[in-house]
Each structure stands twice: as C-alpha cells, then as structure tokens.
Amino acid sequence: MNRLAVFDCDGTLVDSQATICTALETGFAACGVAPPRRAAMRSIIGLSVIEAMRVLHPEGAAETHALLAQSYKDSFFALRQQGLAEEPLYEGIVEAIDGLAARGWLLGVATGKSDRGLAAVLDKHGLHPRFVTLQTADRHPSKPHPAMLRQAMADAGAGPETTAMIGDTSFDMGMAKAAGAAAIGVAWGYHSAEELRGGGADVVAGHASELVALLEALP
Q: Is 115 a catalytic residue?
C-alpha cells in the first residue's frame, strides 16, 4: 500500500481567514442578513459552504442558505479577480511537502473549497503538480463525512492504515477517524489544540517543520 498524506487547505496550507471573513461579511450584507461575528466565521472554515451557512444562520430557510452561499462565492471570486484575495502559505509548508515527497509519501488535498478555489490557490503557489489527488466540496458531502478522504485513498492506492489526514479543524479530525486514517492536527489554523484533540487528533503539530517526523513516526 502507498503512504498518503492528505492536507486540508484553508488554515493548514494557506492562511485565508481574512479573505473568507471579508467575503462572508460582504455576501451576508448583499442578502440583507446581519453578518455573524468573525470568531463564528473562523469556526466554520473547513465546512462546505452550504453547511457553513446553516451553522452561521441557523434560523434561515434552505432557500436563504443557498442565496447566502452563492453571494459568498460571488464575493470571494470578486476579491480574487481584483487581486485582493490573501491566501499566503504558512511558514514551513513547502519544506514539509518536499520532505514527505522525498520519503515516498504521496500527497493529496481534501478541502471544503470548490474546484475553482483550490486550483487558484495551488496554481498561485506552484503546488498543483505536487498532489496526486484533489478532493473538494464540489463532489462530496461536507466534512466530517469521510467521502473525500476515501476517494483520495482510492486515487492514490492507499489504505486507511497508510493514510494521514493533516488539518486544522475538528472537522478534519472527525473525517480522518470516520475513514480509519491517522488524524494529525495543526495548531496554526482556526481551531485550538484542545478542539483538535477533542475531535480525535492523534497528535497536534505546533509548526509545519514537525510534520515529516510526526508522519514518519506513525505505526
């Protein structure tokens, strides 16, 4: 079985919270709905967009959630088109990716982003060729459902026992556990280390420089 390391995107590979929050605020306002507090916005990063809207606006009807989701997507795309989307890589991520690849790990991404959004991030940072499988919300239920991770394993010829999910939220940890994979939390994202451990993290990395050693130490 191949060894597979699957990364979340927002909060794990790139720090996109400022742009996500701005797009949410603009999108909510365009629909005439009061935007939630930024702490609440950060807490749902990683969920698929419709599920995020259900959490952020629980009193809304399904039609309202759909409108909010589309308005958010439109707002985010407009920011990207204007060159205002801030999605910098976290320190040490490229080195971690290189280190894992050098040790024979195949790499993938499982994210609540759309195909378009993920492609934009990976292309911007020149990372697209590094990954053998890319799973997004366009084709799967929201995390923590294990569908994305299961498809990534199938694409890479890996099994749960040789797969690690690397992410910054309890949604990532729940998905890993549901798929039978190792759950590696990262402390530089949007959920706390306590939330990650509560969500099932086997270990929590404090910096990207720790990832290679942590994955190589997995049984």
A: no
* C-beta separation of 139 from 116 below 8 A: no
Of 64, 154, 41, whose CA–CA distance to 108 is shortest?
154
pLDDT > 90 in the chain, percent? 100
Handedness of CA 29, 9, 132, 198 (dihedral sign): negative
- Out of 10, 15, 168, 202, the active site residue is 10
98 counts as catalytic: no
How far apart, in whole angstroms, are the C-alpha atoms of residue 111 and residue 138?
10
The SS3 of residue 206 is: coil
Whether the pLDDT of residue 219 is over 90: the answer is no
Edge-first strand order for the sheet with 203-205 is 133-135, 106-110, 2-7, 158-167, 182-186, 203-205
